[in-house]
Amino acid sequence: MGKLDILLFALGSFVLASAKLPKFIEPCSKSAADFQKCCTEHGNKALPTLLPGVKELNIPKLNPYYLDKVVADAGPNLKITLTNIELQGVDTLKVTDMDVDFDKKTVYIALHAERVMVIGTYDIDGKILVLPIRGNGPINVTIVDGQFKYRFSYKLEKKAGEDYAVIQDNDSLELKITKSYFKLDNLFNGNKLMGDNVNKFLNENDQDIIKEIGATIKAVISSITRTTGGGVLSAIPFNELFLP
Ligand SMILES: *[C@@H]1O[C@H](CO)[C@@H](O)[C@H](O)[C@H]1NC(C)=O
Ligand SMILES: *[C@@H]1O[C@H](CO)[C@@H](O)[C@H](O)[C@H]1NC(C)=O
């Protein structure tokens, strides 16, 4: 190849690459000293475009975010099922840190949420801390000032000669929430006295309750992250998301 051929070839692959990459995804340089900071900034800049949903990437509307069902393993003494879930306040999320370890194939995303409401229908049976709890009906869990540290492993799979990242099942979530409010209507078949007492107990012990139902919260957060992250990762070859 002559010099011009190489230049045209290079231009050609550049055009091809930039045609696949949506404008709102600005790649960061893997080798740059500020890679982590760059990912965090670009992640935040991409959020407003992601919120209404992105059809080409199979990303649904994120605010509000709808989820049919979450069945969470909250330990041997408690069964929680949430259905027809509407998550409000996803637009209060900010990326506070983001990093990729290309050797270990892990992605780390830290998020801050000012105020997120989980509205839906619950079915609960068992014991929470020491208290018996049973019932089904409308639920409203509101979390204020939440920090989430989400980690997932990915593996690379070839599609049409290109490597795409696939999120593995063993994702993890650490969370710290300043204050949570719980409102479960119709507990104990609508027994008002018992229902009021349990709701009062939940709200007075919100930090311990959040620990107990951590698996449920993780399932909800993980669903959002998986549909959003998974949408991007399954549509765009992994190499095109980063600069050398
Ligand atoms: C959910 O609870 C929060 C906090 O108590 C309240 O501000 C909000 O209006 C409630 N949302 C709905 C849909 O009931
Ligand atoms: C997840 O599982 C993969 C193997 O499938 C392993 O390589 C990776 O270290 C695990 N990640 C975490 C965060 O435990």
Task: Write the SSE topology.
Blueprint: H1 3-20, E1 28-29, H2 35-50, E2 65-73, E3 78-88, E4 93-101, E5 106-128, E6 131-159, E7 162-167, E8 172-184, H3 192-204, H4 206-212, H5 214-235, E9 242-243
Parallel strand pairs: 1-9
Antiparallel strand pairs: 2-3, 3-5, 4-5, 5-6, 6-7, 6-8
Family: Belongs to the TO family.
GO cellular component, one term: extracellular space
Pfam families: JHBP (PF06585)
* The CATH homologous superfamily: TULIP domain
Kindly provide the radius of gyration, computed on alpha-carbon positions and rounded to a whole number of angstroms: 22 Å
Percent helix, as a range, is: 25-40%
Shape: elongated
DSSP summary: helix tally: 5
Q: In the CATH hierarchy, what is the class? A: Alpha Beta
Q: What order do the SSEs take from the amino end to the carboxyl end, as H and E?
A: HEHEEEEEEEHHHE
CATH architecture: Super Roll
CATH topology: Bactericidal permeability-increasing protein, domain 1
Signal peptide: 1-19
InterPro entries: Haemolymph_juvenile_hormone-bd (IPR010562), To_sf (IPR038606)
Family: Belongs to the TO family.
GO biological process, one term: circadian rhythm
